[in-house]
Fold this sequence. Notes:
The structure is a single chain. This protein has helices at residues 7-15, 43-56, 88-102, 104-108, 126-141, 151-157, 183-196, 240-246, 309-322, 371-384, 398-401, 407-411, and strands at 36-39, 61-64, 80-81, 119-123, 147-150, 171-175, 179-180, 200-202, 207-213, 216-222, 225-228, 232-234, 253-263, 273-276, 281-285, 291-301, 331-342, 348-351, 357-361. The protein is α/β, with parallel strands linked by helices. Helix 3 (88-102) crosses helix 10 (371-384). Bound molecules: flavin-adenine dinucleotide. Flavin-adenine dinucleotide is lined by residues 39-45, 64-67, 71-74, 76-80, 206-207, 235-239, 243, 258-260, 294, 337, 339, 363, 365-369, 415. Keywords: Cytoplasm, FAD, Flavoprotein, FMN, Nucleotide-binding, Oxidoreductase. InterPro entries: FAD-dep_OxRdtase (IPR006076), FAD/NAD-bd_sf (IPR036188), Rhodanese-like_dom (IPR001763), SoxB (IPR006278).
Amino acid sequence: MTRHYSALSLLREGLNGQRGWQPAWQDADPKPRYDAIVIGGGGHGLATAYYLAKNHGITNVALIERGWIGGGNTGRNTTIIRSNYFFPETAAFFEFALKLYEDLSRELNYNIMFSQRGMWMLGHDRHGMEMLRRSANAMRLNGIDAELHNEAGVRAEIPGLNDSPRFPILGGLNQPRGGSARHDAVAWGYARAASALGVDIIQNCEVQGFLIEDGHVRGVETSRGTIRSECVGMAVAGHSTVVAEKAGVRLPISSYALQAFVSEPVKPCLDTVLLSPATGTYLSQSDKGELVIGAGLDLYLSYAQRGNLPWMERAAAGVIELFPAFSRMRFLRQWAGICDVVHDSTPIIGATDLGGFYVNCGWGTGGFKAIPAGGWCLAHAMATGASHPLASAFSLDRFRTGALIDEASASGIAH
Ligand SMILES: Cc1cc2nc3c(=O)[nH]c(=O)nc-3n(C[C@H](O)[C@H](O)[C@H](O)COP(=O)(O)OP(=O)(O)OC[C@H]3O[C@@H](n4cnc5c(N)ncnc54)[C@H](O)[C@@H]3O)c2cc1C
């Protein structure tokens, strides 16, 4: 049976009629007890399970997913990866994630199609340019690659941009090491690598309650029975408040839908990731040729994973404002995911007031880029009981001490 992916194994299986491949991961049935349980089979949960096994040698782990692996936000996002944050704490964390991404295909022996084609933010007015200058300076001070360009520099790198009187292009900020990756591949790669190290990947299993004794978690009640463990981690973006509440833990999070769209596939025409804060639009071109387009969060709280026409029109208007030539493209499909937004727009990673219960949540619209670091730090907290230095500022305690990290006002983050 072929487990290792290489040019040689592709050739061998090609000659053998593709009959020797093993399933990427073993679909497990739940056992009564584990050393650790991770709730949520998105990128963060899978990465947590993988690093528990790889970094800490804890392999008797259950990864519990109520649907299918990668069926949550990880499989719904627009796949932008960057580390252009403002504050040193967030910059260091997201840069660590980007560095892990740079080596992830080799580490997991799975092609995640990471493409560092650059990530541009456009400045359409003087105020916008001031924000970009501030971001570029902060990024450089944090040791992160940043290039500030004038209008000619932007147009030289991104052909086809409009000459709009409403949204003139005054310049742009590029992070050359930013880019995108195939989202399913990130989930499948981590699932495969975790399973190979002994993690039980349990799909179609919903956590419905918690076993709690003496202020300590003792396990979870699921749709497939009781599973015991003294150490439980949660990474259920979109449903963090709902699941944590079952453990009696209240989180400072509000949930909104975020929508995205893809066009029909066309020949290569956009060789970067582009964000235009003033038009409220961002887009990139996938390796299949589709334009992947997104806009802002819906303005009302919701758990409905569906799109709506007003946002689609708004995003389309922004795209056409930037690239009039795209106005004749057809949309192929539209969807939404639920994003958990923390009041200071910075994630929460670490322990809760319930002993043995750890959370990784509050990624808002931008947690895909954080998956390797989010999993690394949650695994560290679960294995050692202490915050990883990169995540110590992201604890729940900051809502008691007031040490908030307001990235939304600092870098105007989106995705
Ligand atoms: C349209 C859109 C575009 C985005 N674009 C970007 C982007 O370009 N770049 C970026 O960095 N981020 C982006 N994001 C955000 C990013 O997708 C998320 O932050 C990230 O995927 C969160 O990963 P996760 O593993 O925490 O959650 P998920 O992938 O959502 O996984 C959580 C899992 O938990 C499971 N679950 C829930 N409740 C239970 C339960 N009771 N029991 C068991 N399992 C449960 C769910 O079924 C789900 O599979 C975008 C999000 C959306 C919706």
